[in-house]
Task: structure prediction
Amino acid sequence: MRLLPAPSAQSLRLLFLFIFVMGVAPSPALTAGCPDRCVCDDQLVVQCAGQDLILFPNDLPLATRQLIISNNRIKELPALQLNYLSDLVYLDVSNNTLAEISESTFGNLRKLAYLDLSFNTMVQIEDRTFGPLSSLVMLRLTDNPGLSDIHSDAFSENLALQVLDVSRNNLTALNISTLIALPSLRSLGLSGNPWTCDCDTEDLCLWVLIEGFKFQVNKAVVLCWVGDPAMLQGLITAYRHINSFS
Ligand SMILES: *[C@@H]1O[C@H](CO)[C@@H](O)[C@H](O)[C@H]1NC(C)=O
Ligand SMILES: *[C@@H]1O[C@H](CO)[C@@H](O)[C@H](O)[C@H]1NC(C)=O
Ligand SMILES: *[C@@H]1O[C@H](CO)[C@@H](O)[C@H](O)[C@H]1NC(C)=O
Result:
């Protein structure tokens, strides 16, 4: 005795169509596989370093928490694909050929805590580029040899930022008026830039003197003071004094 009618050929075909449509997502970014030339583990880490990739990987698991695509030749971070990864906490894009990033690049990455953009070919960082990254704790932006311009408000919304490293770029000036206001910032890497210590950057030098105890007082800052030996001596004395109590 059959309680259920046998499925007709028509309904089987519909069912098949349904599974097929659901199984093959409309966008490559929505699939749950592991990208070619990458290794995905059950900790939601996707490792694609040094695979000679020229494009941002397709087929990333949506729940990816760490993405390592360093040591490739990726030119662009596509906002659409990247922003599907709303659980991303760690993103290493160091040592690629990224030339620009914009406000929309990181539009939806509200959990991102670590971002490494070192060893790329960026030339400028615009206003609000990192604006959506409200959980960002560490930003490494070193070794972009042509990077000569960082907008004064580039980091103004990154209230969780603790470590910012802009060493070894081509910066002659850095307007620190918004950095001063960041409540969590405790380390600022500045070395290896061709700082010019004229009136425009006087603010930078002055601030480091006052707040130097919070930061690694490094060569770049000392270079800024070479033009005025008395003030350089003042900085060193203040720094030693503060350190002798720490
Ligand atoms: C950048 O990646 C290339 C290719 O994997 C590698 O040969 C080179 O050593 C890397 N450079 C740095 C600074 O990591
Ligand atoms: C660094 O900036 C100067 C102008 O300030 C420019 O002449 C030079 O070409 C830049 N260096 C690189 C590697 O882009
Ligand atoms: C530094 O940035 C602040 C805030 O964006 C701005 O008001 C000020 O004019 C800037 N200073 C210089 C010297 O560009």
